[in-house]
Amino acid sequence: MPTPPQHFANGHYDRQAAVEFALRYKDKSVFEADGYPTEPNNDCTNFVSYVLQAGGLLQSDVWKPGADAWRNTPDLFIFLRDTVGFKENSDPFYNTPNVSTPDPEDYLQLRENNAYTAMKVQLVQNRWDEFIAQNQNIQPGDLVFLLDPTHYAGAWTHVEVVTGWDTETTWDSKIVNGIQEPLVVDHSGRPIITPDKLPRSVGDTAGTGIQKVVFLRAP
User: Fold this and answer.
1) Which residues lie below 8 Å from residue 63, measured CB to CB, with a gap of 6+?
2) By three-state DSSP, how is residue 23 classified?
């Protein structure tokens, strides 16, 4: 029976080393100052690949600087899941609340007092709380993939590294008391809550393009 390929330098993913690298180089200016190259259009994926390398993931013909699996988000996702053995959570988060369109005669009144929008925002918040409650086994060093179909239809468009847990929810959870939110780094600065740009209140349009979120757990 052939020996399975060795993907990690020490036979396992070094989560601590990966997270330490992510936190050290969370600011792009520090990353560049230490001689690491950036990718103008795929910098989050390039950064995450260096994080994975710091965690012991070995370069290969498929995954190395400049290769599609190194610098393109959808290719990295497929490589990690199908080749390295990262596990995708079974129930993704979808930012598509199932809210029926109100009757035309009621719509103007609802729009004026923001009731319809508030209802949709609340459903998104509830769904996110439920998604996080179901994924409390996520660990630092795991990855978060996000899809924004306004950029590339059906393809992952952003990836982040989990670096720890926040002690409070972004929103008041109606699912589990004391639920914790993952803190992530994506090369844009300090650790943030993920996803950091979902609609959090009526009139908040930031990040409304994010439609799908999954966690990818390291083996």
Assistant:
1) 49, 57, 69, 70, 76, 79, 83
2) helix
Q: Which residue has the tokens 């290719």?
A: 75
Tens digits of residue pLDDT in 38-87: 887 778 999 999 999 999 999 999 999 999 999 999 999 999 999 999 99
* Cβ neighbours of residue 1 closer than 8 Å, sequence gap 6 or more: none
Question: Does 44 share its domain with 132?
Answer: no
In order of 23, 37, 148, 169, the CA distances from 44 in angstroms are 14, 12, 14, 25
Domain ranges, residue 176: 93-217
Confidence of residue 141 (pLDDT cuts 50, 70, 90): very high
Could you tell me if residue 24 is inside a domain?
Answer: yes
23: in domain: yes
The total number of structural domains in the chain stands at 2
Compute the distance between CA of residue 162 and CA of residue 184 in angstroms, rounded to an integer.
Answer: 4
Q: Are residues 68 and 111 in the same domain?
A: no
**Whole-model pTM?**
0.81
